[in-house]
User: Which sequence fits this backbone?
C-alpha cells in the first residue's frame, strides 16, 4: 500500500526537531528573564551543537509567529512573558503537526523502490527505511489527483510504457477539468505528435513541447531536469523519467515540496515551456 507524503515521510523531513526542540525549550525557559538573547545563548544554555543552529532558528520563528517571542535588532530576541514549559511544548507540537499534515514548506524525501528492487528493499529495511510509494507511477498518480488545473511533467526520456501510463493517467486519474503539460525530448521511434494523432480524445488534454536547441559545432542544448508539478502547489524533484524502468522497476529518489518552493519550481517550468518548441 502506498504511503501519502502528506503524512510523515518514512525517511523523515530534512529538518528534524528531535531532541533539539526539547533542549531549545529548556534553554528558553532559563533565558526568559533576560532583556535579550541570541541563538548562541540558546545553544550554550541547551548544550546544542553548532551544526543544529538552523533548527533553533526555525523553532524561534515558530514562537515569534505564536506571539511568544519578540525579535530585536542584531538578531537578538526577547521572551514576551514567562511561559509554562508544557505550553511551549504544545506550540512546538502544533507546528510539528502542521509539518506532518504537509502545511509547512520543508522538503520531504521521497523514495520509490520499484516492484523488483528486492536487493535494495532488503538493504533499506535493514536500515529502518520504507518507501513512500511502491512505484514512481503511484507517486505521479498521487500528484495527478491533486491537480485542479494542470499536471506538469518535465522529463528528458519517455518510452512506450511511459506513453501507455500517460494515456491511462488522462483517462482514469486526472480530474476532468485538468490537463497535462509535458516538456521532454523528441523520441524518434514514437514522436508525441504521431502518438497523439491516433488519440484525439487524449490530445485535447495533453500539451507538449520538445526542449532541444541547436548550438555550434553540431551540439545541442537539452534539458535533463525531472520535475512533476500539481498546479503550482506541490512538486516532486528527483530522478524519475516517464519510462518503464522508472515507473515500475528502478529505485528513484527525490524531494517533495509545497508552498513557496513549489511556486518557484512552477515558474521554472514556465521558463522551460517558453524556451521549448
Assistant:
Amino acid at each position: 500500500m502506498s504511503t501519502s507524503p502528506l503524512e510523515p515521510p518514512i525517511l523523515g523531513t530534512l529538518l528534524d526537531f528531535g531532541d533539539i526542540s526539547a533542549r531549545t525549550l529548556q534553554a528558553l525557559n532559563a533565558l526568559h528573564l533576560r532583556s535579550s538573547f541570541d541563538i548562541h545563548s540558546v545553544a550554550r544554555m541547551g548544550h546544542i551543537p553548532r551544526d543544529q543552529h538552523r533548527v533553533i532558528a526555525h523553532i524561534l520563528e515558530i514562537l515569534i509567529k505564536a506571539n511568544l517571542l519578540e525579535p530585536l535588532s542584531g538578531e537578538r530576541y526577547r521572551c514576551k512573558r514567562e511561559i509554562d514549559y508544557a505550553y511551549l511544548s504544545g506550540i512546538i507540537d502544533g507546528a510539528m503537526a502542521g509539518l506532518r499534515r504537509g502545511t509547512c514548506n520543508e522538503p520531504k524525501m521521497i523514495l520509490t523502490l520499484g516492484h523488483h528492487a528486492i536487493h535494495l528493499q532488503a538493504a533499506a529495511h535493514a536500515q529502518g527505511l520504507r518507501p513512500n510509494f511502491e512505484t514512481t507511477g503511484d507517486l505521479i498518480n498521487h500528484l495527478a489527483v491533486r491537480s485542479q488545473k494542470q499536471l506538469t511533467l518535465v522529463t528528458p526520456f519517455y518510452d512506450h510504457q511511459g506513453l501507455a501510463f500517460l494515456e491511462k493517467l488522462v483517462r482514469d486519474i486526472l480530474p476532468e477539468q485538468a490537463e497535462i503539460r509535458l516538456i521532454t525530448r523528441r523520441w524518434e521511434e514514437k514522436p508525441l505528435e504521431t502518438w497523439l494523432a491516433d488519440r484525439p480524445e487524449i490530445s485535447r488534454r495533453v500539451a507538449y513541447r520538445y526542449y532541444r536547441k541547436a548550438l555550434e559545432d553540431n551540439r545541442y542544448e537539452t534539458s535533463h531536469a525531472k520535475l512533476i508539478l500539481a498546479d503550482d502547489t506541490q512538486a516532486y524533484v528527483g530522478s524519475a523519467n516517464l519510462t518503464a524502468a522508472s515507473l515500475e522497476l528502478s529505485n528513484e529518489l527525490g524531494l517533495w515540496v509545497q508552498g513557496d518552493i513549489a511556486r518557484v519550481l512552477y515558474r521554472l517550468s514556465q521558463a522551460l515551456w517558453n524556451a521549448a518548441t
